């Protein structure tokens, strides 16, 4: 067998193992929110446990992407994995919720290795016909964790302590790091890429962008008090200025499809993951589910997401991307509507929540992969680093802000309704999500034509 084929096989295994580790961690953190709230006697700042990881990941995405350009993806992945693992240990040692949130930031810095660098590896070593299958394999890497992580996390949290759902991720991450170290060469086989701007300056802009997003999230976490809301406006301004500097200027000016793809990823991630992060907590606090059973929402949504990704992998023609995206969003609309209605009206059985979120996961699985592959279709090769970094930033921005907004709505519902506040807050968040999905349907109409055009700018 040729060495090239052996390397490809190792790369597939290592990338899937890496995604599995990330999936375990994300699902464990979300399923563990109820136990963390009980242990630290608070429902405040739970959104920041999820969001702080993602905000720090913004800086990690840019910094590790720049490191990948200069020293190759192997070193970037190893540095990121090390930070991620150190963060897990420190999180498990947290004496209070503030320390826990800060240590999640260290995890997030390392988690940046699993964003843009992964896209570069896929582009370097797999051709256009293989990429949809790789993204489908990525979604499958969530299946096993989604089946066992929520249940295991709930069991460990209830019987041994909230720390153990984090610690169980550590050996998986170590294995992923080892396999990647064996699979990746010291240098990428692709020639060094064009440095569109000063790497250190990009890291500074990423830090300003992340700090601005964090300020917005802290203000949202302080709702319903009015004074912190004054932070939101300057936060949005500074985030807009810094975020614009992080976008690939040449590629975005000549390929408007890239701008639309990035915008759609922000919108769809905002809409879906804000609700997804708090559904287990709502079922645990408001419906009396056990932690393990409440986590089943994550399992069902991850399984249906994988099913949606599989449906997408059956269509590899570039001019199908926009059509599949719109169909996925239409399905997600139905699921979010079902979930929002059943969250608000207590008389509707919890099974309706589970069914609705399963449908939403199916639609997101189709639409998410459509955008991932569409970006690789249209991004100019010499600017792939910047384009994939922008997509990773869109992911983390959408998820973190969506989670923060959902947390703010829950805080408002806490002050107004008291009981069942989490469900009421998520129900209002679902209304905003429906509007965002409708907007996404309109923007997504232009993807088909753009993705079918050949990429230039070589």
From TrEMBL:
> One of this protein's Pfam families, by short name?
MFS_1
- Domain of life, per UniProt, equals Bacteria
Which intervals hold domain Major facilitator superfamily (MFS) profile? Answer: 9-448
Q: Which GO terms describe its cellular component?
A: plasma membrane
What's its membrane topology?
Multi-pass membrane protein
Give the UniProt keywords, A-Z.
Membrane, Transmembrane, Transmembrane helix
* Gene3D superfamilies the UniProt entry points to: MFS general substrate transporter like domains, Multidrug resistance protein D
The record's annotation in InterPro entries points to:
MFS, MFS_dom, MFS_trans_sf
Name the major location: membrane
Q: Name one GO molecular function term.
A: transmembrane transporter activity
Where is it located? Answer: Cell membrane
Protein name in UniProt: Multidrug resistance protein 3
């Amino acid at each position: 067998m040729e060495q090239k084929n052996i390397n490809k096989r190792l790369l597939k295994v290592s990338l899937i193992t890496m995604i599995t580790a990330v999936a375990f961690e994300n699902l464990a953190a979300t399923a563990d929110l109820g136990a963390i709230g009980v242990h630290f006697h608070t429902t405040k700042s739970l959104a920041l446990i999820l969001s702080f990881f993602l905000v720090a990941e913004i800086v990690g995405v840019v910094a590790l992407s720049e490191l990948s350009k200069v020293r190759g993806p192997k070193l970037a992945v190893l540095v990121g994995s090390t930070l991620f693992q150190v963060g897990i240990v420190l999180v498990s040692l947290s004496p209070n919720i503030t320390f826990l949130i800060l240590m999640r930031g260290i995890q997030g810095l390392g988690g940046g290795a699993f964003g843009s660098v992964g896209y570069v590896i896929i582009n370097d070593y797999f051709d256009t016909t293989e990429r949809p299958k790789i993204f489908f394999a990525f979604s499958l890497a969530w299946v096993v964790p989604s089946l066992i992580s929520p249940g295991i996390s709930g069991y460990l949290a209830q019987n041994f302590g909230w720390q153990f759902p984090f610690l169980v991720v550590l050996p998986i991450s170590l294995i992923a790091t080892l396999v990647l170290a064996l699979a990746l060469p010291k240098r990428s086989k692709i020639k060094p890429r064009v440095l569109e701007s000063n790497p250190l300056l990009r890291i500074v802009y990423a830090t300003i962008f992340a700090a601005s997003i964090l300020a917005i999230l802290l203000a949202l976490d302080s709702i319903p008090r009015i004074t912190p809301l004054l932070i939101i406006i300057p936060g949005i301004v500074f985030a807009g200025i810094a975020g614009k500097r992080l976008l690939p200027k040449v590629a975005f000016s000549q390929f408007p499809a890239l701008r639309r793809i990035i915008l759609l990823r922000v919108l769809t991630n905002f809409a879906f993951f804000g609700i997804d992060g708090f559904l287990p907590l709502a079922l645990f606090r408001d419906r009396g589910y056990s932690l393990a059973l409440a986590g089943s929402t994550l399992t069902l949504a991850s399984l249906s997401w994988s099913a949606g990704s599989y449906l997408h992998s059956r269509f590899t023609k570039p001019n199908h991307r926009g059509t599949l995206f719109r169909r996925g969003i239409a399905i997600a609309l139905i699921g979010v509507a079902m979930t929002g209605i059943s969250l608000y009206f207590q008389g509707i059985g919890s099974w309706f929540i589970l069914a609705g979120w399963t449908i939403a996961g199916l639609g997101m699985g189709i639409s998410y992969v459509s955008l991932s592959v569409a970006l690789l279709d249209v991004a100019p090769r010499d600017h792939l680093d910047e384009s994939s970094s922008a997509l990773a930033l869109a992911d983390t921005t959408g998820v973190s802000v969506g989670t923060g907004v959902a947390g703010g709505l829950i805080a408002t519902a806490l002050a107004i309704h008291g009981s069942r506040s989490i469900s009421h807050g998520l129900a209002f968040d679902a209304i905003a999500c429906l509007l965002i999905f409708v907007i996404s349907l309109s923007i997504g109409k232009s993807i088909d034509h753009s993705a079918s055009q050949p990429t230039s700018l070589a």
